[in-house]
Structures are given as C-alpha cells and as structure tokens.
Amino acid sequence: MIRLALFGSGVGSSLSPAIYTGFARGRGLRLEYRVYEAGPGGLAPALEAAGDLHGFNVTKPLKREALRLAARLDQHARAIGAVNTMVAGEEGWEGFNTDWRGFLDSLRLYTASPPDKALVIGAGGAGRAAAYALATWGAGRVLIASRTGATARKAAEDLGGLGAEVEAVSPGGLEAAASEAEVVVNATPLGWDGVSTPITRGFREGCIAVDMVYRPLTTPFLRLAAASGCTPVDGLWMLVLQARENIAIWLGAEADPMELRMHALEALSRG
After folding, report:
1. Residue 36 marked in a binding site
2. Where are the domains of the chain?
3. Binding residues for NADP(+), per the UniProt record (predicted)?
4. CATH number of the 2-97+240-269 domain
C-alpha cells in the first residue's frame, strides 16, 4: 500500500484525494491519500500521528514550516522558501516545490509569452511560487501584494535577482497595479467562500487572470476579471498540473493532466 497524505488548514474540501486515488485506481495501484487538519506549528505532530507515509503534500499555512522538516530540498523549494511536496528518502524527508511548475504550466495553456508586467496578490507559499515562476520564465516586472505589505516586501527581497524586477506593492496600490498588469494572480484563500475576492475592479482589459482557488471553479475573482474583458484561468488547472509533478516524484510515473482534471471534476460534481 502506498500511503500519501495532505496536511493543512481547511483540507476537508480538497480534491487531491480524488485526483491521486483516481489515477492509482486506473493503474491497479493500491494507494491511499488521506487529509489531516493541521494549523500553524502543527505539522510535526500531525505527521507523527499519520504514521508511516511514502510522501505527503502540505498546504496553507504549512508550506514555510515544512522547510524545517526536510533533510534535503530541491533548488526550487530553496529559492522560493516554501515546500508543498515531500517524499521519504534515505536520509529523511526530501522537500520539493511543485506549485511553481503547476502555476506556470497552467498559465502557459493560455499564453506562449511571459508578460512584461504581472501582479501576484498574496505573499505566502503559493504567492512566492507564482512570483518565482513568472520571474524565472522571463517576465519583465513582477509585483507582489499582501494584506499588510510586510510579507510582500519580504517576498520581493527574497526573490530578487531572478532576472526580473520583483517589487512589493503597497496595499493601497493594488488596483493601480492591476490596471497595468497583463497577468493578475489570486494567490490568497479569498474566494473559497464563493463571495470574497482580493480585488473588485482595476483589471486591465485583455489580461489573463489566474485564480489558485478551485472551489468554486468560477470564483468571484474570475467572474469580475471576465466581465472586464480578461481571460479567466481556474485554479483546478494548477492543481492537476502540480499533481502531475507530484506523481512523477512519488511514483515515477507520467500522468495526463486531462485525466487528473476529470477525476477532480467528477468529485466536484458530487459536492
């Protein structure tokens, strides 16, 4: 039995179990993927309670915390300063960041060229991954915004020197930044309730709006962006494209993102 898990806050509604167990079922693999609620400081005890695992994912608010548990880190996790995927290794847990690749691949479904200017709203592990992906892909300027501004400034400082200008945006400058950005990313939890959104106006017509929230599939952020003439990219694409990377790490197998998305949509339709 291949035992995998997800640790984080609000993980009961995650579609990850459906994605990984659906993939395994189609290949005759015995695999379980369980979710464990864990808040700040709770990863180590939750991991101990989960027992023997082949690997696991972490989500908010544990992506920075997971760094401290890793015996080894891949170059992307180290540069981003956040881990979302772990696999058991000979010397302990090996930490990876697959968020950045899942985000980038989802964006590249809609554009072949990096933007001159992009705005990432949210400076946690997911926001850092998006900013890293944009900067390393070749974006000209990457603007990062957060609720207080402090975490955005820290992220901009940490991610400088990647080939792009990475700058923090003050909380009051969010709409002005969005009005100039070719790509706008929601890397906050706002939207999970089906009502909230990090921005209500200011989208530049023709922009690409990427939401990392995938439940609901069409969030208030994406509805507002579409109404402003932008192309909406739902968060399910990032989830399944990141899952493709995780499957390669955990199982050494290739996965078709369309198949993974189908498993997720089936689970979503069941409520």
Report:
1. no
2. 2-97+240-269, 101-233
3. 122-126, 212, 235
4. 3.40.50.10860
Give the pLDDT confidence of 23-81 residue by residue, as tens digits. 999 999 999 999 999 999 999 999 999 999 999 999 999 998 999 999 999 999 999 99
- Exposure string over 3-28, b if 16+ CB within 10 A, otherwise e: bbbbbbeebeebbbbbbbbbbbeeee
Tell which CATH architecture fits domain 101-233: 3-Layer(aba) Sandwich (3.40)
262 is in an annotated binding site: no
Indicate if 63 belongs to the active site. yes
**Report field, pTM of the whole predicted structure over 0.90:** yes
125 labelled ligand-binding: yes
Q: At which residue do the structure tokens 């608010």 appear? A: 61
